[in-house]
Amino acid sequence: MPVPLNKRRGLMGEINVVPYIDVMLVLLIIFMITAPLLTQGVKVELPKAAAVPIADQQEALILSVDARGRMFLNVGGAPDQPLDHDTLLARATAALRRDPTRGVQVKGDQAVPYGRVVEAMVLLQQAGASKIGFLTDPVNAPRTTPGP
């Protein structure tokens, strides 16, 4: 009498986890490399406002104005270096010519005079931006202060 197939071989009750470990290690390396890149930027104390967040901030052209009135742009060779008006205008124009639908945002420190933020907006309009948004901190976001 023939023996049924499942009687000849026992059921395999173990899972090969080696491929899963490999995938997890690759993801860990990717996150370790990209995490420091996400925290770069200019230190700006944003004003608080109860506004709805915009989903597409990753691709936006962001002009930052720090408390001393210096202007920074998140495109170009060194986004953490202050730019003069001509360099800022040239970089913003080039970025907006490459992608005219790119969002444009101003990130102004709450301590900077309003006139300096208006200058930044005028430069962005001269570069070809038709719609300019403002970045703010949420109203109930905890303030983080840098450690010693």
Give your account of this protein's structure:
This protein is of the alpha/beta class. The protein has a domain at 61-134: Nucleotidyltransferase, domain 5 (2-Layer Sandwich), CATH 3.30.420. Helix content is 36%, strand content 11%. It contains 4 helices and 4 strands. The protein has a 4-stranded mixed β-sheet, with helices on one face. Helix 3 packs across helix 4 (114-127). The protein is elongated. The mean pLDDT is 78.
Comma- or semicolon-separated keywords:
148 residues; 4 helices; 4 strands; 36% helix
List the helices and strands and how they pair.
Elements: H1 5-8, H2 18-38, E1 61-65, E2 71-73, H3 85-98, E3 104-108, H4 114-127, E4 132-134
Parallel strand pairs: 1-3, 3-4
Antiparallel strand pairs: 1-2
Helix pairs in contact: 3-4
